[in-house]
Amino acid sequence: MRPHVAVVILNYNGQPFLEKFLPSVLASTYPNQSVYVADNGSTDDSVSFVQEHFPSVNLLQIQENLGFAGGYNRALKEVAADYYVLLNSDVEVTPSWINPIIDLMETDSSIAAVQPKVKSFQDRHLFEHAGGAGG
Fold first, then answer.
1. 5, 56, 94, 133: least buried by Cβ within 10 Å?
2. What is the pLDDT of residues 83-97, one digit of tens each?
3. What is the sign, positive or negative, of the torsion defined by CA atoms of 123, 28, 112, 17?
4. What pTM was computed for the model?
């Protein structure tokens, strides 16, 4: 059996992102994954939207916005898995996106963490350069 992978998406007032991008995460071909949306005290309709439209998603409700690190730290205490993927809510993935990552990590014990190459959603032949990647 393949290792269990928990895909954890921290959300704060991101219902439009969940609507647009969560279907690609759920279409993953990896055979042993669980998808979690950790709602970080949203005041929009994110929680009810996930409950209504994505009942297979594990919903973790954090009552207040604890920020990025605080939200993930709280959420991950409630998730058990062999591997954890911390995925932004505004990311579209391909169906086989998890497979090569787990294959690599399972064959090389010196690898403790991986980060994907991220392509621009607007111009898919270019790599994304926003945020922590520099610019």
1. 56
2. 999 999 998 999 999
3. positive
4. 0.89
Cβ contacts of 58 within 8 Å, gap of 6 or more:
34, 35, 36, 37, 79
Whether 3 contacts 83, CB under 8 Å: yes
CA–CA distance, 64 with 81 (Å, rounded to integer)? 25
Three-state DSSP state, 84: strand
22: number of Cβ within 10 Å: 24
Phi-psi region of 114 (alpha: psi -120 to 50; beta: other; left: phi over 0): beta
Q: Which two tokens stand for residue 93?
A: 């993935």
Task: Return d(Cα 83, Cα 14) in angstroms, integer.
Answer: 25
